[in-house]
């Protein structure tokens, strides 16, 4: 039997999440986040697709995802995964970027994978400080130095337009999904709004956004669900407010993308738990 350990901590000093997964076999389908992800493979081997590019990740490799970078990953050769990452909201990243560079902008990191990078050691040390709930300024200093090197070597100022041309029709569909995600949306309705057939809409949208329209919708729903859970809304209410057909669908898809159930994620931000810490051990 393999033992899975999933640990998540929200650091109130740094205003970021720290994830640690140990011994997991989970496959993560194509999705995106509305925040930055900086992580590394502590042990294992994974096949990653990010922005339609394929990578093979090994122990010691680092990943850096921008908000809305579509990505999917799965294990190779049946190996389990040990993984650590920090998740940084755009408004928090903007503050750190202003602190480091003196300029007010959102960075866009240009390399999703940094193979066997020296920064893995710094990220590992920072992650340990967060999980151990250290309160001195050492962890903030380490985070600033880590971000400074990433910004200097691997980032550009984010352009107001995507580096990949997105047509007006696809932009219109994205805007509609983002403002109507809580409703029941049909492919026929999206096709009618875009002026394309269903088939051509799916093909064009997927090619330009790197993710299918339905997966885009579900990811928008999950990102909104995370915000509601963080604010203390109960999982049952969140499911109803984010457009999922039933509680089971919501729970299953949330865990596929986030690695935790909605109830587990809700507990991280529930002030009844003084440490704001969750550790879930699953025997398999």
UniProtKB/TrEMBL annotation:
Entries under SMART domains matching the protein: HTH_ARAC
Q: Which segment of the chain is annotated as a signal peptide?
A: none
CDD domains assigned to the protein according to its UniProt record, in alphabetical order:
cupin_YbfI-like_N
Query: Which keywords does this chain's UniProt record carry?
Result: DNA-binding, Transcription, Transcription regulation
Q: Where is the HTH araC/xylS-type domain?
A: 171-268
**Cross-referenced InterPro entries, in alphabetical order?**
AraC-bd, AraC_XylS_family_regulators, Homeodomain-like_sf, HTH-like, HTH_AraC, RmlC-like_jellyroll, Tscrpt_reg_AraC-type_HTH
Top-level taxon: Bacteria
Please name the Pfam families in this protein's record.
AraC_binding, HTH_18
Protein name per Swiss-Prot or TrEMBL: AraC family ligand binding domain-containing protein
Q: Which organism is it from?
A: Paenibacillus illinoisensis
């Amino acid at each position: 039997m393999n033992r899975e350990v999933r640990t998540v901590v929200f650091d109130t000093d740094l205003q970021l999440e720290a994830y640690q997964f140990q011994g997991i076999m989970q496959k993560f389908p194509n999705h995106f986040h509305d925040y930055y992800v900086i992580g590394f493979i502590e042990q294992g081997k994974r096949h990653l697709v990010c922005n339609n590019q394929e990578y093979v990740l090994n122990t010691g490799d680092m990943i850096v995802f921008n908000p809305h970078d579509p990505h999917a990953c799965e294990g190779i050769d049946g190996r389990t995964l040990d993984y650590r990452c920090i998740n940084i909201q755009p408004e928090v990243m903007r503050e750190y970027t202003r602190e480091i560079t003196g300029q007010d902008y959102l960075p866009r990191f240009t390399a999703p994978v940094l193979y066997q990078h020296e920064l893995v050691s710094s990220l590992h040390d920072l992650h340990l400080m967060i999980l151990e709930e250290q309160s001195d300024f050492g962890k903030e200093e380490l985070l600033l130095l880590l971000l400074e090197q990433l910004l200097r070597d691997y980032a550009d100022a984010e352009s107001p337009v995507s580096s990949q041309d997105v047509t007006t029709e696809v932009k219109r569909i994205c805007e509609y999904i983002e403002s109507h995600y809580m409703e029941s949306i049909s492919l026929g309705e999206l096709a009618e709004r875009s002026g394309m057939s269903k088939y051509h809409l799916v093909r064009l949208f997927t090619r330009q956004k790197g993710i299918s329209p339905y997966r885009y919708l579900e990811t928008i729903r999950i990102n909104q669900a995370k915000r509601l859970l963080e604010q203390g809304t109960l999982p049952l209410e969140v499911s109803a407010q984010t457009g999922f057909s039933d509680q089971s669908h919501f729970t299953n898809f949330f865990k596929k993308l986030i690695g935790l159930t909605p109830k587990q994620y809700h507990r991280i931000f529930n002030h009844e738990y003084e440490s704001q810490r969750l550790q879930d051990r699953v025997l398999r």
